[in-house]
Amino acid sequence: MAKYAIALDQGTTSSRAMVFDHGGGVVAVSQKEHEQIYPQPGWVEHDPMEIWARCQEVLDEAMAKAGAGADDIAALGITNQRETTLVWDRRTGEPVHNAIVWQDTRTDKLVDELSASGGQDRFRHQVGLPLATYFSAPKARWILDNVPGTRERAEAGELAFGNIDTWLIWNLTGGTDGGIHITDVSNASRTMLMDLDTLAWDHSIAGTIGVPLSMLPQIRASSEIYGEVSSGALKGVKIAGDLGDQQAATFGQACFDAGDAKNTYGTGNFMLLNTGTELVHSKSGLLTTVGYKIGDRPQVYCLEGSIAITGALVQWLRDNLKMIKAAPEVEELAKSVEDNGGLYIVPAFSGLFAPYWKSSARGVFAGLTRYVNAGHIARATLEATAFQTREVMDAMRTDSGVELTELKVDGGMVHNDLLMQFQADILGVPVIRPVVAETTALGAAYAAGIATGFWNGEQDVRDNWAEGKRWEPDMDGGKRDAYYKEWKKAVTRTFDWVE
Description:
By secondary structure, the protein is an alpha/beta fold. The protein is 33% helix and 22% strand. The protein contains 16 helices and 21 strands. Helix 9 crosses helix 14 and helix 11 (329-335) packs across helix 12. The longest helix has 27 residues, at 374-400.
């Protein structure tokens, strides 16, 4: 009798395996970082073979820590950094190039070329996304254009394309020896190639962008049995869940009703609002995305506000400026001052994502005076995350007509009390952290466990969700408005920096 479900959470900076019991409690965790490769300014890559090696290690370690065998595991769920793109040889299993990470901006000229006819919203009605460097299809086209021989090989059917979920599932189910080449609707909706209505690849858009259909994986539901793990500690365990990381967090936060919203604080920030089975097209710079699909039931859609740089700004303070030795130290440094000292940091390192979608923007420090010290820089770093979230929430309110009365939060930064309090203050609504804040892995485990009957459905997830901590807004409305006005002014200073 299976006692647990396991999730493999392959993120931007690390890979993590988590074992959960039936109550959604954490039984065991193993996590390992992987290298961030920066070949040129604006370029970000990962080594797919290193990621695959780290994922095997954390799965085996988590199983060992849980004292579990394959028979104890009801299902394995996969969740992944979305849009990160790789292409590999079906016969050898070798990637033809490093994975191009979602933050990477090398496709800016290609995006401009595609936008020249029809504008940035050329494909938005079909795919829910603006033309931007963020998404997978332009990255795949870049590989085919820049790695010698790949276009010919792709058109001959020799190469496979996928986001990281597709790469992991292919390897877990045997790779060159019978590995299955699939993705789910949530990941497919981030490629810029899937029609949101039909959940099928759009042949016309793929042809226009220049991605051969023969490379593309089969699109499946987010919760269904795909295959079995072919080797290792999980040999024989069913792989039954696949969700992009932000959709997985939405699932893990039990945001199953239209109007439910969550915000994940990681390398970047991602706020998703469930719009039910209704496809809502954004007029305010948000993305329309597939939230999830359980088995043969109708897909559920979300509006999403994607912010490129939040937790990554804290890492930048640590790694580039050497102001702190570890990320948690930023809170103590920020607490050493009463406010931001008039400093606003807009971290447009790779352009601005929602709601602006300006790849030509670059980061600024605004309002800098001799008064400003390291504490103010730390505080402005945290506040940048909260201000960017407020911009997304305003856009969601405009698009959906829904007034958010609270915000569920998760991810690494939600253990920072100073940030969470400022977030509640600048939004003017309560901010709520669940008991299990790592909802991305939990959501993938739930999707897999529902497919195999370990959990009965969404109600089990709702029953397991529990509030851990709540922050109530405690800022005067006039002060809130003044802060936000200054922030908006600072944002305009980043526009059109790159010509």
